[in-house]
Amino acid sequence: MTKKDIVLTGDRPTGPLHLGHFVGSLQKRVELQDICKQYVMIADYQAFTDNVDNPQKVRDNVLQVMLDYLAVGIDPNKTTFFIQSLIPQIAELYFIYLNFVTVNRLRRNPTVKTEIQQKEFGENVTAGFLTYPVHQAADITVVKGNLVPVGADQYPVLEQANEIVRKINSLYKVQVLPEIKAVESKVPRLSGLDGKAKMSKSLGNAIFLSDDADTVLKKVMTMYTDPDHVRVEDPGKIEGNVVFTYLDVFDPDKQKVQELKDHYQKGGLGDVKVKRYLAEVLNTFLDPIRTKRLEFAKDPQAALDIAFKGSLQVREIGAQTLKEVKTAISLEY
Amino acid sequence: MTKKDIVLTGDRPTGPLHLGHFVGSLQKRVELQDICKQYVMIADYQAFTDNVDNPQKVRDNVLQVMLDYLAVGIDPNKTTFFIQSLIPQIAELYFIYLNFVTVNRLRRNPTVKTEIQQKEFGENVTAGFLTYPVHQAADITVVKGNLVPVGADQYPVLEQANEIVRKINSLYKVQVLPEIKAVESKVPRLSGLDGKAKMSKSLGNAIFLSDDADTVLKKVMTMYTDPDHVRVEDPGKIEGNVVFTYLDVFDPDKQKVQELKDHYQKGGLGDVKVKRYLAEVLNTFLDPIRTKRLEFAKDPQAALDIAFKGSLQVREIGAQTLKEVKTAISLEY
Q1: Is ipTM over 0.90?
Q2: CB contact under 8 A, B101 and A58
């Protein structure tokens, strides 16, 4: 990975970001901004595809997400932030790309299939939602991104994008668009408070980066542990016990975590005690993030302006990319 | 119909325009430009949806179509011409609208169904092609068009556009987009040389506005007449006889046409004779169009510049429309 690599990531602004985002993606971005050319996109149009009934939620969360980015240390001097709907070339590339993808291919995309089920669209899936992998192909290629840090569940979406890239490059005998590689993160997914595989706002099992210390404590107290660990003196299981999963991820004191695990497995360590400890660990971790977030939140316009300024830069890059693609398809005037 | 009405029409630049276009649409546009605010769009992106293998053909025919428009008397001082791919707001509106249309609704659209069969897409229909009615909704609404002169076969496409317009207006409690009405033309469809219901370049049964006099004569000689009219002295049928269909449309001398019909039905009038007469009528009709076309063709850049200049105007109007739609969906910044 070098400064020549162009990395794109983004989030749908449907709520503030949580620990799952941090572990799965945000910390990786803080690393990557020193290694590659990094773009971070606030995917408001993408969020619109399944929030047509409440787009104001999307609009409001653009700021929340931007504050989260700044709070965790994604640095505007190193990373270019932009807002998807402010880049008209994405929509135009999307239209062009839709002509290289069959409807059946989209229906067979495993990621899309799963999401259509999860969101219970049934037979009423909109054309906007079904085609979102093509929109993502436009997001990535508009800045000629070649690296995308994603979980394995998103690989089919990248494969869809690469099919389009290859088709255009081969059909028109050009090398306009780079192929895209996935970058896997070390801990791709953090389980939710309830032990479910994925922390998610919509599942109501998330700790947000903006939660205050009290809220964090309360949420940790609801955490899924070992359902058979009834009395303090009983031996407890640490496998699938979310409290220990989180300690493994967030406690820098590995020795202490090992001691707690041993104690818990032997018996004599109560859930409440270890939960209180985890809450402390999490609050220690979140404190500097919260402080920075409050600082940035004092001037919301300044935070948004960072995204607006970046969007102007991406529009220029996008204009160049679109020009090259239009030239390839003989429709540049 | 008043100056407040906004009418949009357009053509896919896949070949020069023919007599079918003239009868079905072009002559109506020459009328409408004095009555309404008229936009005429060269639909290059639309043509791309089923010409990805040969986009150069699309690019080349932009000029041919523009010359045809000018030659028939669509007047740049009265009509605003524009090129679809030069209006980025169309792509953005298209993306937004796709979120108000289900994939199944598009599959059930009778016009789309027929075209998928005709073009033999089968299971390989692209997302770009399936969604073209949504793209057309964007074409029309980008200039807030409320009148579209089309044949009855295109009504389902307008209905699709109106569904989107109504959904946006009602969901967000706005009156941003006007509903669209079809304007029917007097002679909506001219049969082909071979007697097929529709004259079309791809069916090879067309007389182009740019055909020279010799070509017109040759083509008329191949025309479908009455297959049972074998000897000159036999009585002939005029129903379904393309030669008489064309005479009805293009010969201003109605009395002469009636005499020919009577003679033909009685017997004693040969196909060759009546065809030679039709060729004369058509060439008299086409002569001034051809002369004007040759004149405009001397300066192709000037002809294209008319479309480029109009596109700049439509971009400004489009920016305003898009701003209003984005405000309605809470995504204006």
Answers
A1: yes
A2: no
Per-residue pLDDT of B260-312, as tens digits, reads 999 999 999 999 999 999 999 999 999 999 999 999 999 999 999 999 999 99
Order across the sheet with A181-183: list the strands: A79-83, A37-42, A6-11, A147-149, A181-183
State whether A11 and A93 are in the same domain.
yes
Range of the domain at A243: 213-294
* Count of domains observed in chain B: 2
Q: Which chain A residues touch B98 with a CB distance below 8 Å?
A: 126-128, 131
Is the pLDDT confidence value at B186 over 90? Answer: no
pLDDT tens column, A198-235: 898 888 999 999 999 999 999 999 999 999 998 999 99
The answer to whether position A201 is within a domain reads no
- In order of A32, A251, B41, B135, B159, the CA distances from A55 in angstroms are 31, 38, 32, 22, 25
Among A197, A117, A116, which residue's Cα sits nearest to residue A151? A197
- Amino acid in position B160: Q
**Contacts within 8 Å (CB) and 24+ apart, A160-167:** A160/A101, A160/A105, A160/A106, A160/A109, A160/A133, A160/A134, A161/A133, A161/A136, A161/A137, A163/A100, A163/A101, A163/A105, A164/A97, A164/A100, A164/A101, A164/A134, A164/A137, A165/A137, A165/A141, A167/A100
Asked if the structure places residue B311 within a domain, the reply is yes
Write the single-letter amino acid at B67.
Answer: L
Buried b (16+ CB within 10 A) or exposed e, B45-63: bbbbbbbbeebeebbebbb
Facing B52 at nearest CB: one of A48, A100, A130: A100
Mutate to test the interface with A, among B86, B103, B172, B315 (most CBs of A within 10 A): B103
Q: At B81, which CATH number? A: 3.40.50.620
Mean pLDDT of chain B: 95
A134 touches A97 (CB < 8 A): yes
Contact B49 A85 (CB under 8 A): no
Q: Do B45 and A95 touch (CB under 8 A)?
A: yes
